[in-house]
Amino acid sequence: MRHFLALPLLAVSMSLAAPASAQDEAPESEMIEKLNDPAFQDGMVAMMSGFMTAMMDLPIGQFASAMEKAVPEGMDDRDTFSLIDPDATLGDLAAGDNPNFNADMEDKMRTGTAMMGIMASEFGALLPQLKAMGERMKRRMEERE
Length: 145
Hints:
The protein is an all-alpha fold. It has one domain. Helices cover 78% and strands 0% of the residues. It has helices spanning 2-22, 28-35, 38-56, 61-70, 78-82, 90-95, 101-144. Helix 1 (2-22) packs across helix 7 (101-144). The longest helix has 44 residues, at 101-144. The protein is elongated, with a radius of gyration of 22 Å. The N and C termini lie far apart (51 Å).
């Protein structure tokens, strides 16, 4: 389940980073502030929760049935597909026996958004050094020419 959460978090962080990096005067502090804002984080969680709810409603049982027919007889994996209910959704498989799956998933999303804010803060502290390193590298390359 952890991998399901990584994709929307990555997409959101990349969408926030692209506009910031495209501007000459990068508003790193604005981005860092936004990523650490609890209201912004709640909005991200709401958006990701809606996305994940839609994903969890995807029917997977019929796909598993088709896969069972596609796997040649005698292969180990063939029996696995027959264990999946034809009416099962992705959420049914992901939740397993966890009755708190949706709440747990949302908690992990909240933790993930908080971690993005912390990571942005820590990375922001490194930016002056990274910019200085880039300038030194640029100067050295110009000296070589």
